[in-house]
Write a structure and sequence with these properties.
This protein is of the alpha+beta class. α4 packs antiparallel against α5, α7 crosses α8 and α12 packs antiparallel against α13. The protein has 17 helices and 38 strands. The strands form 9 sheets. An 8-stranded antiparallel sheet has the order 14-13-10-11-12-15-22-20.
Length: 673
């Protein structure tokens, strides 16, 4: 066994590998870019070395820099995590040439499965069923279009070298094909340095079911059952579970055996995942690809098998045999994983950047696991994937695991940027999900249910928000008084005192993020010796009191009902997490001026920092509402910005290749009327 390993990755997977290595008594070496100098994985490792600037091509993808760190640190092996260099055969070869063990499959296996087209040809030879499609080397656009016509619409255009939904586009009809092909090729080239694509028939209601395989250097290979990853957006997984619901045991066995055969056919060693599309109506399954690495969703497999797959990786890479055989593996209970992202579901899941001002997770134990790579105060950067954490739950059956997941999501608290927590709660509560009626277009089919208008803050949320403001003012006033030479100064009073009047105040909260169309909610405050009387909208009144405990939690008493809440203020924004849910409100301070208002319609601005990839309309041309105007590349994905209304595109304020900042106005646009 090694004594020291280097983790050539960042974020939650680097932290995950460090935890297992530490449990096994191994020393760990982290690498980091300038953007990650204070990152969680850097703090956790025994040693950490800078490898370059923030962009991945200048840091986490620099093979020479990583191998130099391995040499300088004395690391005997390198764990690549997932993403970055994990499926790069040149990196695996370079490790071998440098005398460092690559904790992954041999380069030949990566090469065999590295190209989706080549992998499909190999599987076709091995007799594994494939989705109808074109997987050839000829990339002439006219040929690709002809193949798409032959296969029949809709078709899926997929990056041959990629994964994670990057370089993957759907063409529903011939009129869309050229634009979608160009976008897929651009995105693939940017993400993988390879713009080759393949074309497949787009199945209407398939499930995405994958098999976890593991092989050692002695020729043994097992499958650790399956995961259902059908809940996706933008072809990226959102919720995964193991085992797959309602999968017949015979199909499970045939899938597992096919996956093991695929691994053995290429001399595989280590952890890998063979991905299939499963057609429940016909009971058939079709090979999609093999990921020659550990997967993001591996924790659900660990939860149902009781195995540590990272430990298996380390042991197999050091030459040990697999710890168990196929007959020793059994499924225990049910596990579900939800990916917590910094993204805005109401804006087509647009990734978000910013600082995690507050971050809270449910307590961990036998039923709940949290894999995170960030802490409160850390930033979600434009340079990397916007995942915040993975919430994983386990219980004896699926219904119990779903209840665990809803509770875990309800206890998750994020302040500082938009996240998909509310969306995940909607998924975990949807009748179709509860009934395991799953397919890869689940989110599209149930979009209206999953993205409802946010509910207005109820009386309890408003009372807690107001109580927090009042207690926070008391705290500030006490601090001012203690620092003042005159403790009897009127500025130190906290009771709303008025001469010859009842001590009263009014707090104004605005819902809708402080926007122009936000709704004002007025809360009257009557100061009492033992707290406050809060006069809420609708005529309801509540007696309130409480305090912030040393941990920062608001301990409140509302009409004799005691409860705990988390109250977080960020500028004028106040977020309250309470037993009934969470709400974000903006406190209107009349003396500080008006709130920022929305800019009138007709503006097309960068939603985040990024690079201009393509301009799609001619200056001076008439455009329709929703017509694509330009493509912005940010956070490893392409984002198409569209016309806000019908009108005239008078000019572009950017050019292809420009780096733009969030909020930069990108076009001059005149709306009709």
């Amino acid at each position: 066994m090694f004594s020291k390993i280097l983790i050539a990755n960042r974020g939650e997977i680097a932290c995950r590998v460090i935890r297992t290595a530490r449990r096994m008594g191994l020393k760990t070496v982290a690498v980091y870019s300038d953007a990650d100098a204070e990152a969680m994985h850097v703090a956790m490792a025994d040693e950490a070395y800078r490898i370059g600037p923030a962009p991945v091509r200048d840091s986490y993808l620099k093979i020479e820099a990583i191998l130099d760190v391995a040499r300088r640190s004395g690391a005997e092996a390198i764990h690549p995590g997932y993403g970055f260099l994990s499926e790069n055969e040149r990196f695996a070869e370079a490790c071998a040439a440098a005398g460092v063990v690559f904790i992954g499959p041999p380069p030949s296996a990566i090469r065999a499965m590295g190209g989706k087209s080549e992998a499909k040809a190999l599987m076709e030879t091995a007799g594994v069923p494939l989705v109808p499609g074109y997987h050839g080397a000829d990339q002439d656009p006219a040929l690709l279009r002809a193949e798409a016509e032959r296969i029949g619409w809709p078709v899926l255009i997929k990056a041959s070298a990629g994964g994670g939904g990057k370089g993957m586009k759907v063409a529903a009809a011939a009129a869309e094909f050229d634009a979608q092909l160009a976008s897929a090729k651009r995105e693939s080239a940017a993400a993988f340095g390879d713009d080759r694509v393949l074309i497949e028939k787009y199945l209407e209601r398939p499930r995405h079911v994958e098999i976890q395989v593991f092989a050692d250097g002695q020729g043994r290979c097992v499958y650790l059952f399956e995961r259902d990853c059908s809940i996706q957006r933008r072809h990226q997984k959102v919720i995964e579970e193991a085992p797959a619901p309602n999968l017949p045991p015979e199909v499970r066995r045939r899938m597992g055996e096919a996956a093991v055969a695929a691994a053995k056919a290429i001399g595989y060693v280590g952890a890998g995942t063979v991905e299939f599309l499963y057609d429940p109506a016909q009971g058939g399954f079709y090979f999609m690809e093999m990921n020659t690495r550990l997967q993001v969703e591996h924790p659900v497999t660990e939860m149902i098998t009781g195995q540590d797959l990272v430990e298996w990786q380390l042991r197999v890479a050091s030459g040990e045999p697999l710890p168990v055989g196929q007959d020793d593996l059994t499924i225990q209970g049910h596990a579900i994983e939800a990916r917590l992202y910094a993204e805005d579901p109401d804006r087509d899941f647009l990734p978000q950047t910013g600082t995690l001002e507050h971050l809270g997770f449910p307590p961990c134990g036998p039923h709940v696991r949290v894999d995170a790579g960030v802490r409160a105060g850390d930033a979600i950067s434009v340079h990397y994937d916007p995942m915040i954490a993975k919430l994983i739950v386990w219980d004896v059956d699926r219904a119990s695991a779903v209840r665990r997941m809803r509770a875990a999501l309800g206890a998750t608290q994020v302040v500082g940027l938009a996240t998909n927590v509310r969306f995940l709660e909607g998924l975990a509560s949807h009748p179709a999900f509860l009934g395991a009626d799953l397919d890869t277009r689940f989110i599209e089919r149930h979009r209206a249910d999953l993205l409802p208008e946010p509910a207005s803050a109820g009386p309890r949320a408003l009372a807690l928000a107001a109580l927090g403001v009042l207690l926070d003012r008391e705290r500030s006033a006490r601090e001012t008084a203690s620092a003042s030479a005159d403790p009897w100064s009127p500025w130190a009073r906290t009771d709303g005192w008025r001469l010859n009047e009842e001590a009263r105040d009014t707090l104004i909260f605005r819902e809708g993020g402080g926007r122009e169309n936000g709704e004002d909610r007025l809360v009257g405050v009557v100061y009492r010796r033992d707290g406050y009387r809060l006069e809420l909208p609708g005529g309801e009144s509540v007696t309130a009191g409480g305090e912030f405990n040393p941990g920062g939690t608001l301990e409140a008493d509302l009409d004799g009902v005691r409860l705990s809440a988390v109250w977080v203020r960020q500028g004028g924004d106040i977020t309250v997490f309470h037993p009934g849910g969470s709400h974000r409100l903006t406190l209107v301070e009349p003396l500080t001026g008006a709130l920022d208002q929305d800019v009138p319609g007709g503006r097309v601005a960068a939603p985040m920092p990024g690079k201009i990839i393509a301009l799609l309309a001619e200056p001076g041309s008439k455009v329709e509402k929703g017509q694509p105007l330009l493509v912005l590349e940010a956070m490893k994905m392409e984002h198409t910005l569209k016309a806000p209304s019908a009108g005239t595109l008078t000019a572009y304020r950017c050019a292809v290749g420009d780096q733009v900042e969030e909020g930069n106005e990108l076009v001059s646009f005149e709306a009709e009327g």
